[in-house]
Automatic annotation (TrEMBL):
<feature type="region of interest" description="Disordered">
    <location>
        <begin position="1"/>
        <end position="28"/>
    </location>
</feature>
<feature type="compositionally biased region" description="Low complexity">
    <location>
        <begin position="1"/>
        <end position="18"/>
    </location>
</feature>
<protein>
    <submittedName>
        <fullName>Uncharacterized protein</fullName>
    </submittedName>
</protein>
Length: 118
């Protein structure tokens, strides 16, 4: 077989990745997966975020601002604040803040690219 390659296409000395059985995952890994699975947000939260974006990020321009711009200009600053009244500490994921610390399983997956217009 051919050697494994890194994400940059150069040969890697490591063996090719193989999926692990769930039973091989550590309890810490499984707990983190469960936590991440609870970071869904409602469409209402997304729409409210978009409306508030013009206040939270005054330089936001829907014709020019990328996902990267919005993450740096609004998501990260909002995440630093947290939601102390709901017991959500600062430096929490924005989805956790939007959900006031309550896990929410998503029903749909919406993905993004850092360079796309927001």
């Amino acid at each position: 077989g051919s050697p494994a390659t890194s994400s940059r296409g150069s040969p890697s000395s490591a063996a090719p990745c193989r999926p692990r059985a769930e039973s091989e995952r550590s309890p810490a890994w499984q707990a983190k997966v469960q936590e991440l699975c609870g970071r869904g947000v409602t469409l209402r939260c997304v729409l409210d975020f978009y409306v508030d974006l013009f206040c939270d990020m005054p330089h936001f321009d829907p014709q020019r601002s990328t996902t990267r711009d919005v993450v740096r200009g609004a998501v990260i600053p909002l995440s630093r604040v947290g939601a102390p009244e709901a017991g959500v500490p600062s430096s929490s994921a924005l989805a956790v803040i939007m959900n006031r610390g309550q896990p929410r399983q998503p029903h749909r997956m919406v993905t993004h690219h850092w360079g796309n217009l927001f």
